[in-house]
Structures are given as C-alpha cells and as structure tokens.
C-alpha cells in the first residue's frame, strides 16, 4: 500500500465515523485558501481532515478556478490556442492533448495549464466492461505506476489529474497504458 492510499484510508475512516458529514467550510473560506489570501487555521485543518465532503468541495473549487484562469488567459491572448506549446528543444514534440484508443476503453490526456505540468486524465469505459467489473478500474503504466483508479461515473468515465512530480509529457513517451480491474 502506498503512502497516499494509506492517508486516504485514514481520512475515509475518520469521515466514516461521522455519518452526517456535511461541508464544514463555506466556499468563500475555501476560495480564500485557494487564492492564498488566508491559510487554514489549525482548527479548520482538523475540520478539513474530518470532512470528506469539504475536501471534495475544495478539490472541485481548485479545478474550477484553474479552468477559469486558463480561459481568461486565452481571452487576453496570454496563451497559445489550443493550449499546445512548442518545447524549447526542436527535437521535442509539442505538448498537447493525446487520445489513445484501446479495446473497450479510451484514454484522453489533456494539458490543464500552459506549461504542461497539470494534466486532466479521462478514461471512457464501454458499458459492457463496466458491467463485468464491479470493483472498479485502474489505469496503470508499463512501469507499474497507477495513474487513475476508481469507479466510472454515470457517463462511464473515470476522471482525475496527474499527481506526480515527473512531467506527464516525459513519462508518456516511454510507457504503455493499460486499463485493469481495481
């Protein structure tokens, strides 16, 4: 079990102890944290640790804010269209969206920022595969790294963001991706 998964399991256990979990910090307060206007106080950090609803809301607000910022940059002409950047070295291909199609699933890797550090990962799974895999899925590369894990939403998609220090654009050029049962 990796460290991140262990932390998530502990947080889930804490949240399970409170079956009436609700959002404990309002959007205005979470927005202040996202914009670095005011850090969380120690009691607010404890509230965040105990409330999975609040953690999920913070994550959603963060991703929404990033999308708004990127849209604003595009309107102001600060970023290239459609978010494809040429790499500094001529021999390096442009950072841009990648679409991979496998049997019964497809993977879309979309850069979420102008420097290619943040990426949105979407896996679309065929209904027939979902029915036969009630335990969920993992998107794993040929070096054993799990990129995304969970159950598809109502649209048959798993969605997440690249969470590693290594740039995805470097990694994607040396590994294969595979969807496996979780």
Would you mind describing this structure in some detail?
By secondary structure, this protein is α+β, with helices and mostly antiparallel strands. The protein folds into two domains: 3-75, no CATH class; 98-181, Elongation Factor Tu (Ef-tu), domain 3 (Beta Barrel), CATH 2.40.30. It has helices spanning 3-16, 27-34, 42-50, 52-75, 127-131, 168-172; strands at 98-102, 105-111, 119-125, 137-141, 146-150, 157-161, 177-181. The chain is globular, with a radius of gyration of 19 Å. The chain starts with a helix and ends with a strand. The model is unreliable at 78-92 (pLDDT under 50).
Produce the secondary structure layout.
Blueprint: H1 3-16, H2 27-34, H3 42-50, H4 52-75, E1 98-102, E2 105-111, E3 119-125, H5 127-131, E4 137-141, E5 146-150, E6 157-161, H6 168-172, E7 177-181
Antiparallel strand pairs: 1-2, 2-3, 3-6, 4-5, 4-7
Helix pairs in contact: 2-4
How do the helices and strands follow one another from N- to C-terminus?
Answer: HHHHEEEHEEEHE
How much is the radius of gyration in Å? Answer: 19 Å
Kindly, what is the distance between the CA atoms of the first and last residues, rounded to a whole number of angstroms?
Answer: 13 Å
CATH topology of the largest domain: Elongation Factor Tu (Ef-tu), domain 3
- Structural category: alpha+beta
Text of the CATH class of the largest domain? Mainly Beta
Helical fraction: 25-40%
Shape descriptor? globular
Tally of individual helices: 6
Tell me the major beta sheet: 4 strands, antiparallel
Strand order of the largest sheet: 1-2-3-6
Number of domains: 2
